[in-house]
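Example record

One chain of 372 residues, shown exactly as stored in the release files.
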Amino acid sequence: MLKQLFNKLTVVLLLLIPFTGSSQEKEWMLGPFERPGSINPIIVPRKGPLFYCPMNKKELYWEEMATFNPASVVRDGRVYVLYRSEDKLGEMIIGGHTSRIGMAVSDDGLNFERRPHPVMFPDHDSQKEYEWPGGVEDPRIVETDHGKYVMTYTQWNRDTPRLAIATSSDLKNWKKHGPAFSEAYDGKYLDMDTKAGAIICRLEGNSFIAEKINGQYWMYFNVPYVHIAVSNDLINWKPLEDDRGELLRVLSPRPGYFDSWLVEPGPPALVTEHGILLIYNAGNSIHTGIPELGHRLYTAGQALYDSENPLKLIDRTDNFFIRPEKEYERTGQYEDGTTFLEGLSYFNNKWFIYYGTADSRVAVIVWNPATD
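Predicted structure tokens for this chain:
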């Protein structure tokens, strides 16, 4: 109880201090991160190039409503951000529009040039039943040892969100493999709400490469609890269950903290010298969490797992390391405010996190270890 009261007092003090990234709570964390000057937001909605939509059978402005929740990859000395976009044709509620995945490219990680058309979208393909009419959402990307890219994303048919897998050799042309859990336990989890797949990887140069631990790949996933799954091929995944036959929980919301409402994996999890680092998105409840922080407001924390046992939680932050405080983080489709982290890259000896703001725009924070 005393610890929770202390944490609440700490959060109140943090709310009074602008986010400058001046300190870190624990030595194993990445950061401190800073918002780089006046560059944000780096990708915003636009009534830009028209795209012929196979589903609607007409041309439309595919990123007119929102651009948010990005993945990021460093390739050939440039940063690629693949972000979720929405058109304006649907119902004016969250989840009521069609989502596609666009691409933007940068030479410095801050200033981006967008491609005119989405690189993934609902199409006349084998995934039609899972992706029409809501589309494809919230990508996260890792590489393989053989130079291929693996994307986890959410298929949204406006009935059930499903975590799915796609692969590519160039980030532009993607092969959809369907729901990640379609074969596990004879389809037990095919029709369950699933999303937010953060595959465990290692940093090699500027590449985040999927890492085998004890002979298999691992992935944290889902919300409001974080669960875990394993795979032999990065395409077909098996969630791990507890002794009751239910999904094993490896991270849970905490009463009295900034993550009292929900926890959800952020970017791909990273093997570090301290253990497996999972940056996670966190939702606050004014009823069970920090009233001063705001209801249903999204911040972000960090958790550390054993490098030999991804199930074993070693430590986690008591406080958020980023929260919505800028106008672009508190105005948009999600009015309560979000800093929703999904893209993590190491580029030019700096760490970049790309994130969605209020379900409407893309922004970036940066950590330069040389300045510490």
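Notes: The helical segments are 2-15, 128-131, 327-330.
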